[in-house]
Amino acid sequence: MDEHIYKKIEIVGTSDTSSDDAIQNALKRASQSINNLRWFEVIDTRGNIKNGKVDMWQVTIKVGFTMN
């Protein structure tokens, strides 16, 4: 059985649509420069308020990837 070594980094995704979209944006961008992405975990969710409404979602996630 192959043993895997993982590295974790923390990134923040943003979206003016939803928290789920903020996660997708973060993963899409991370996948452009990080190979072997395997999992993520949500660390924090917050947002910006403008005129009494959610203006922007910000989601902090940790992503794990296997090292070569």
What this model shows, in words?
The protein has 68 residues and is an alpha+beta fold. The protein has one domain: Dodecin subunit-like, CATH 3.30.1660.10. The chain is built from one helix and three strands; from the N terminus they run E-H-E-E. The protein has one helix at 19-31, and strands at 6-15, 37-50, 53-66. Strands 1-3-2 form a three-stranded antiparallel beta sheet, covered by helices on one side. Strand 2 (37-50) and strand 3 (53-66) form a beta hairpin.
Give average pLDDT, whole number. 95
CATH architecture: 2-Layer Sandwich
**What is the number of independent domains?**
1
Class of secondary structure makeup: alpha+beta
Spans of at least 5 consecutive residues whose pLDDT stays below 50 are none
Give a quick set of tags describing it:
68 residues, alpha+beta, Dodecin subunit-like, three-stranded antiparallel sheet, 1 helix, 19% helix, elongated
Quick recap of the structure?
By secondary structure, this protein is an alpha+beta fold.
Furnish the topology, listing elements before pairings:
Blueprint: E1 6-15, H1 19-31, E2 37-50, E3 53-66
Antiparallel strand pairs: 1-3, 2-3
